[in-house]
Amino acid sequence: MTETKNNNGLKVIAGLLGVVLLATIIYTVSLYQDKKKTTMALTQEKDLVVEDLNSLKSEYDKAILESNATNEELVSARDRIAKYIDSVKTMKSDIASLSRYRRQVGVLKEEREQLLRQVDSLTKSNTLIAMQRDSTFVELEKQTVFNDSLVVQNTQLADAVERGSALNLSSFTVDAVRERSNGKLVSTSRAKSTDKFKICFTVADNVIAEAGDRQFLVEVLDPQGNVLGGGMTKSSEDGASVSYSKETDFYYENNDLDVCDFINKPSGDFQKGNYMVNVYDDKLKLLGTSKFALK
Predict the structure, then answer these.
(1) Which CATH superfamily groups domain 169-294?
(2) What is the spatial distance between Cα 26 and Cα 32, in angstroms, rounded to a whole number?
(3) Can you give the pLDDT at residue 279?
(4) pLDDT by residue (tens digit) across 159-194?
(5) Could you tell me the residue ranges of all domains in the chain?
(6) Cα dist from 97 to 77, 101, 104, 252, whole Å
(7) Percent of the chain scoring above 90 in pLDDT
(8) Measured torsion, CA atoms of residues 90, 94, 95, 98, in degrees rounded to the nearest 10
(9) Residue 173 is inside which H or E element, if any?
(10) Phi, psi for residue 245 in degrees, rounded to 5
């Protein structure tokens, strides 16, 4: 009897121990599964935080690339997010830390919106400034072309006025003359009889020419091509030069004006042969040419 009771007691104790062990196993398994679920949830939450941060970083990268000039605020914000990503990846996951980073992600999103609005505003402003600058350049270019056109027109007008105001000859004659004892001059064609050349020309009327004292140059070339009367020389601004026999001065009043002058014979008699007489204005423009021969 006593042994039977002892056996029954042992069975009861064994049963209780089995129940306790089973309960312990079930509790341990439950704790492990809860921990596994918690770790998985924290990992997923951590991945979501990293994903959000990477998304923010990508948006900053895009904004920096689209910006015409490097924006220091965008670059600084992007670099700060990159540091957050490294911190989240390397941290030990826990609810408090992830909650803190999740809140920080919200703050960073608001900061991103504000910065992107500023960048957009600056971009629009820069675009407007560029358009205004381009428009100004176009107007300046048009004005430059217009000014150049005016310069050309003014130059052409000045040239036309200068050409139009130049004096010209309406007639030009040269006569070899002999002076009689009474002072009267008579024409001759003989070299030995010639005392001087009488050179006469008519300056045509010109209403736009400047009235006042004028000077023409008379050039007389003998049969050998030598300049009679000393051979003085005058040069123009463009480098041309003329050797002439005599300066003829007169006062011009915009009307037809007859002018005569004389070239005296050199020492001895005039030579036989062909002579040429040229008349130039004060700018060395050739106004007339006459040829004649002495026997």
Answers:
(1) Immunoglobulins (2.60.40.10)
(2) 10
(3) 93
(4) 556 566 788 988 999 999 988 888 788 899 898 888
(5) 2-125, 169-294
(6) 21, 6, 11, 108
(7) 16
(8) -10
(9) strand 169-179
(10) -95, -35
